[in-house]
Design a protein that fits this description.
With 330 residues, the protein is of the alpha/beta class. The protein is built from 13 helices and twelve strands. 43% of the residues lie in helices and 18% in strands.
Amino acid sequence: MWLSTIGLLVTFGIGLLWTPLVATAQQPGKVYRIGYLSASSPPPPSASTPALDALWQRLRELGWIEGQNLVIERRWAEGRLERLPALATELVQLKVDLIVAVASQETIAAKKAARTIPIVMINPVDAVKTGLVASLAHPGANVTGLTTMTPDLNAKRLELLQETVPGSARIAVLKCKDLAGQGWEEMQDTARALGVQLQLLEVREPDDYEGAFAAAISERAEAMVVFQCYFNVFNRQLIVDLAAKHRLPVMYGFREWVQAGGLMSYGPSLPDLTRRVASYVDKILKGAKPADLPVEQPMKFDLAINLKTAQALGLTMPPTLLMLADEVIK
């Protein structure tokens, strides 16, 4: 009798405990909504997009699956910077839990529109100099993520380019007009140390590029460094084609330029950047505050060389660079 009573009590107790557990398990979990803001155009369905693919893949690995516990609101400015503020405001009105901003202009627009919504940057040129964060260690407010080390990288690009074109004493620099944080001042210090004279060429509109290359040739520039900034990115193929037309060796910021026919590039791995951004998204959706997450700088850098382009320019790439290259296009 005593044992039977205990058995009934235990069974009843387990039943009481099990009922809320079952009810909880059957309740659908929260579905988070994040915004993705890009100044670019959406890629064609069949296009290869390693950086974007890496972002979504890493989120899936972390348990965030679109259509299950995650909704992604993608907004594309399609090359028109003036559209970014409205698109950022649209994301805010949708009450997204977080905004992933691709680069500087996207982050600026998102920061102005979203005063409290967390913003995660992928690839702004200099987050501190452009005023996106207070400092890398203590970003403050609602913005965090990654930032490229443009000043240091441009110095390294200049050194690699001079090694590729031995004896080069005059190098042109293609800089976006009226955009801060590109590293022009810091590059001049490196140029002085290397005994190189820099020729500054500022561009904004597509029609500016032909004149810029003509000016470089007129001033007898022996090579060129192209800054990884908004206007240059959107005119990538035009720049690569003009470099081939004028037979000018050019150093770029990312391997995508080399894959498009450019001579060489040195810079962060975009897929690596986006995978690391996914970790920020994961932490913030789980409760972390952007102000408590230091802004990170790139840790992986790629050197890419296009031997076809080198041959067309009559250049012999130094064997040491070919050995160091992460990608060599033959």
